[in-house]
Amino acid sequence: MVTWPVQKSHSIAFLASDHSHQPDFFRAENKLLVDEDLPTWKLYLRWQLLVAATPTLGTAWRDAAFTFDSSLGGEKEQPPDWRRCTRAVDQGVGEALGQVYVAQVFPPESKARALKMVQDIESAMGRDIDSVSWMQPATKEEAHLKLAAVINKIGYPDKWIDYSSLIITRDSYPMNVERSTAFELARQLTFIGKPLDRTQWVMTPPTVNAYEDPQSNTINFPAGMLQPVYFDAGKDDVINYGAEGAIIGHELTHNFDDQGRKFDLKGNLRDWWTSEDARQYDERGACVAKEYTVPVPGMPGVQQNGKLTQGENTADNGGIYLALSALAADLKQQGKTLEDKDQHGLTNLQRFFIAYGTAWCDPLRPEFAQTLVKVDPHSMPVLRVNNVLANMPEFQKAFGCKAGQPMVHETRCRVW
User: Fold this and answer.
1) 111 in helix, strand or coil?
2) Is 251 a catalytic site residue?
3) Given 251, 277, 291, 376, which residue is catalytic?
4) Mean pLDDT, the chain, as a whole number?
5) What is the pLDDT, as a whole number, of residue 243?
6) Taking the domains of the chain in order of start, what are their residue ranges?
7) Contact partners, residue 310, CB within 8 Å, separation at least 6
8) 24 is annotated as an active-site residue
9) Closest C-alpha among 112, 143, 142 to residue 125
10) Contacts of 84 (CB under 8 A, 6+ apart)
11) In the chain, is it the N or the C terminus that has fewer CB atoms within a 10 Å radius of its CB?
12) Which is catalytic among the residues 257, 316, 330, 376?
């Protein structure tokens, strides 16, 4: 996932998690079932139920939940009613909201342009697979097969969820929430015993996020993620490839990282890498982990854990290379180059990097940063810009950076 760390919820860039940890989880859970007595479990489950229900139980409950959450996140005031209501609709009937949303902000022309960008970046990945020196020919062949089988989901589903059987009334907000939750559970249960439907989404169209799903071999970009400052139909390709293109490349890179490699072109759990490829990958990944194990600039006392964020950092570094390669090819088709200048004297290469950095401008409250850095597999935004660009000779060329300066890493880490 690409995930921003604030209310943009890229939690999923979800879907890039380490599935090998699940057996450990269930072993630990089984131990707790034995070690803890029944009254303790009842109290814990009652608390979990009430915490989950706080948004629906009235002002007193919501205020209490906000007081607790603000101690971890540092928020000074609750979101306005319009934002809370919009979130509730998105959570309960997200594809109904999505139909209204895309009709207003994501016309077919934008979808076609975004799809072309995705396809250009996939072509860049194909070139990258051919060029890497650390991957064996047999593994490269498997990688090309997996790349060709990727399904690109852009903006919104081809077939919307039918909510006609769901009853929503003005009588009781908690009951509306309960019925919408039951509706979605029943819908999910209908998939049991049937072939995998790779067209299903796990994000709603207004969501500002993106994800790669290894079990369906799909990359997914909701319409909410195809809006400014990421994708702007009013801007040229240079800006869009720098901002949105790097995110597309990030998700595609997940298909070929230490977790994506565990799933084949059909989404089956099958490691298709040779042991030597895995060793070479891990060696390069260790460089990335070390590079990101640093204090976070501008956040005293906040230390990034490079091992925790290694997979997402690898995708960040790989994604921007893919976007730049795709942009260069796109410009060439138009008879242009990365060295062409705009009316302000900036080259296309400079504008590409400026767009990338702008997309990650996101101030964080100190309390939230302290919490986030302990649990989020994505690095702080400042490192998602500075560490990525300091690895790139292309950036140093664009802005005349010299050896020994902060934006020139002596050891350049790169996997893809």
Assistant:
1) helix
2) yes
3) 251
4) 92
5) 98
6) 105-153+209-399
7) 258, 285, 288, 289, 292
8) no
9) 143
10) 55, 78
11) C
12) 316
